[in-house]
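We were asked to recover a plausible sequence for a given structure. The inputs and outputs are reproduced exactly as logged, with field labels preserved.

PROBLEM: sequence recovery
POSITIONS: 175
GIVEN STRUCTURE:
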């Protein structure tokens, strides 16, 4: 009877050992995502815009991205701060894809020409956005390249409440 118990304990130990090895391999695959990353993102909603982009890893498959952006079209300048909560998944060794949602606040200012000579106009706006993208994390250097698409719904915009697609390209330093 003792031999049966020893065999049972040995079998349970082997099962847990193999499961731990598989979990360690999965964790190693997810190590593309660094604890922090900072860089620039260039997007195209309401003119060409540049954002200072910061990412912070929160959980095993989640992170927070904060972006401070500046946009400029023919008659309007805007500044926007947004935050996006993201989930990410590994595709290949260095390649990941992600999706998320978030929101933000901003300030816009138009010049005299936009209002037919009636003076400049400005205001505060809010944005709700989504995010879906793909990124490549270099293994030899701490660099990340990403391309994403952000559907954005803007409230109290200078033109009107509107919907836009913000296609962006980012390069970040991972640390």
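RECOVERED SEQUENCE:
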């Amino acid at each position: 009877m003792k031999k049966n118990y020893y065999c049972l304990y040995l079998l349970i130990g082997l099962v847990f050992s193999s499961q731990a090895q598989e979990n360690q391999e999965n964790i190693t695959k997810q190590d593309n995502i660094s604890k922090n990353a900072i860089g620039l993102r260039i997007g195209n909603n309401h003119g060409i815009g540049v954002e200072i982009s910061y990412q912070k890893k929160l959980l095993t498959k989640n992170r927070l991205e904060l972006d401070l952006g500046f946009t400029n079209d023919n008659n309007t300048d805007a500044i926007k701060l947004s935050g996006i909560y993201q989930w990410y998944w590994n595709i290949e060794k260095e390649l990941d894809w992600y999706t998320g949602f978030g929101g933000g606040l901003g300030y816009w200012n138009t010049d005299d020409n936009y209002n037919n000579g009636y003076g400049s106009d400005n205001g505060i706006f809010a944005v709700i956005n989504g995010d879906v993208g793909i990124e490549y994390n270099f293994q030899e250097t701490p660099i990340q390249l990403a391309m994403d698409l952000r559907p954005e719904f803007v409230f109290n915009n200078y033109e009107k409440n509107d919907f836009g697609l913000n296609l962006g390209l980012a390069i970040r330093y991972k640390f």
